[in-house]
Automatic annotation (TrEMBL):
This is Putative glucose-methanol-choline oxidoreductase. Residues 244-258 form the Glucose-methanol-choline oxidoreductase N-terminal domain. GO terms for molecular function: flavin adenine dinucleotide binding; oxidoreductase activity, acting on CH-OH group of donors. Its cofactor is FAD. Transmembrane segments: none annotated. It comes from Acrocarpospora pleiomorpha. FAD binds at T17, S18, V210, W438, H439. Belongs to the GMC oxidoreductase family. PANTHER family: CHOLINE DEHYDROGENASE, MITOCHONDRIAL (PTHR11552:SF147), GLUCOSE-METHANOL-CHOLINE GMC OXIDOREDUCTASE (PTHR11552). InterPro entries: FAD/NAD-bd_sf, GMC_OxRdtase, GMC_OxRdtase_N, GMC_OxRtase_C. It comes from the Bacteria. Keywords: FAD, Flavoprotein. Substrate binds at Y437.
Length: 510
């Protein structure tokens, strides 16, 4: 454990949400697996090495961040927090596990991606929920802030639901399903890697930053790794990239796999011209709205904190704007930070779930430690649909906040505030203050052979390169109507099964 071997049958690049799933599934059947994680491996669940903010499920994790942000793309810097540690972004997230809607995955299958329909994926969602120890809050479990919005939601046409993950339901407000046990955020290192750590056929190496993939005669044969101050080559039979939406494309680009024009500028020799690498970046634009609160709400929350469990997030609403006639395209997320001592905040976030705007991830240079250029181009669609959907969501939240039962509890709106009550002023505010929902996808798009911008096929194989797969949210052609934590687990489950199918077929003919 921790020593860098010279070779492995399967090399998984990235011990994050999806990568750990792939690694565990391969190791379970006896295959030789090496996991290379750019950040530290803190060991199994319960180890004292785990940082408190990562295991504390009452709040979002922040330590061991890659430090990515929007740079000078917008009037102010937007943070794109990504965990550089074993567990990846399952270390950081708010523990909300949503699946989306049937139309999300059926649309992938209808575009020619065989095996990716809702019915194909539902067993993987169910298995992911089981492995991640997910449970659903009851209404009686909600904090006063969460319960107040849950109770008021029907006034805005969102019925109270038991949970959020019926893929045939549309609008509603429900307690969340969460990967939390005894206050601990259950990440994929705990859920998937821990059961296989004792096996002799899996090795997990932390602080191992993969620079690039080596391709010989059209086949991926190894990776170049920075580890303990040295640059080392590790030979591989099959390589699975699972660096996430920001890092998987940059590994490809440094490997000479991507748009030729971009590679030429950086003097990176061309291995495979794939113009879609780093393109199609999208995330769900977000607005965090805040209210002044009230003495009654403050006292109720203090009592809840004194009684014990009082997390920041517990309930969520989903609704349809006028632009979505299939299902829903908005999330509402009550948020009540409990760790901001002396700085109470009474907030609800709203997010537009089906953005039309597309951005990109690009290299600044060939140093693997250099931060890439990340530009989501939030709210940049020429038709202005994304900003219109977000504005409609904000208006719906204001309608709920004005409910006679809720209004005395939430108080006056303080952000974005009364000066944006006019729609044009609200739209201007949104354009000036872009923000993200921390769910980037799409930069190694999965598509059919006639899609020039696709990077992998329906079996997650990189076009033109044998022995190289991608297993993370970067392969999603379009984001589902979901928080992407559980879909990321499903990406790992799906790609692992594709690999195991091929192992079984090879063994059957050997």
């Amino acid at each position: 454990m921790g020593a860098l071997p010279q070779e492995a049958e399967y090399v998984v690049v990235g011990g994050g949400t999806s990568g750990n799933v792939v690694a565990a599934r391969l190791a379970e059947v006896g295959l030789d697996v090496l996991v290379l994680e750019a950040g530290p491996d803190f060991g199994p669940e319960g180890s004292a090495a785990w940082p408190a903010d990562i295991v504390d499920a009452t709040r979002l994790g922040r330590s061991h961040d890659w430090g990515y942000d929007s740079g000078d793309s917008y009037p102010w810097r937007v943070g794109f927090e990504r965990a550089r540690a074993i567990g990846g972004c399952s270390d950081f997230n708010g523990c909300t596990q949503t699946w989306g809607h049937r139309r999300d995955y059926d649309s992938w299958a209808e575009a020619g991606l065989t095996g990716w329909s809702t019915e194909d994926l539902l067993p993987l969602f169910e298995e992911g929920m089981r492995r991640m120890r997910v449970h659903t809050y009851r209404a009686d479990d909600l904090t006063p802030w969460q319960r107040a919005w849950y109770e008021a939601a029907p006034a805005a046409g969102m019925p109270r639901l038991a949970d959020l993950n019926d893929v045939d339901e549309s609008a509603g407000f429900a307690p969340e399903a969460v990967n939390i046990v005894d206050g601990v955020r259950i990440n994929t290192a705990f859920a998937y890697l821990d059961p296989v750590r004792p096996l002799p056929n899996i090795r997990i190496v932390g602080d191992a930053l993969v620079d690039r993939v080596i391709v010989t005669n059209g086949r991926a044969t190894g990776v170049v790794v920075r580890h303990q101050g040295e640059t080392v080559t590790v030979r591989a039979g099959t390589i699975v990239l699972a660096g996430g939406t920001y890092n998987s494309p940059t590994v490809l680009l440094r490997s000479g796999i991507g748009p030729y024009a971009q590679l030429a500028v950086l003097d990176i020799p061309l291995v495979q011209h794939l113009p879609g690498v780093g393109e199609n970046l999208h995330d769900q634009p977000f607005l965090l709205m805040s209210w002044s609160g009230s003495e009654e709400m403050g006292a109720a929350m203090e009592r809840a904190r004194a009684a014990g469990w009082c997390p920041d997030e517990q309930a969520m609403g989903k609704a349809a704007s006028s632009f979505d006639t299939e299902a829903f395209d908005l999330h509402f997320l009550p948020y009540s930070p409990t760790h901001l001592i002396g700085r109470k905040r009474w907030s609800v976030g709203v997010s537009a779930l089906q953005p039309r705007s597309r951005g990109f991830v690009r290299l600044r240079g060939t140093d693997p430690e250099a931060k890439p250029v990340i530009d989501h181009r939030f709210l940049a669609d020429p038709e202005g649909v994304d900003v219109a959907v977000l504005a409609e969501g904000a208006t719906m939240l204001r309608e709920i906040a004005a409910d006679p039962e809720l209004a005395p509890l939430v108080g006056a709106e303080i952000h974005p505030g009364p000066e944006t009550f006019d729609r044009d002023a609200l739209v201007a505010h949104l354009y000036r203050n872009p923000d993200n929902y921390w769910h980037p996808v799409g930069t190694c798009k999965m598509g059919t052979g006639d899609d020039a911008m696709s990077v992998v096929d329906e079996r997650a194989r990189v076009h033109g390169i044998d022995g190289l797969r991608i297993a993370d949210c970067s392969i999603m052609p379009r984001i589902p109507r979901a928080t992407t934590a559980m879909p990321a687990v499903v990406m790992g489950e799906k790609v692992a099964r594709l690999l195991l199918e091929e192992v079984a077929a090879w063994r059957a003919t050997s």
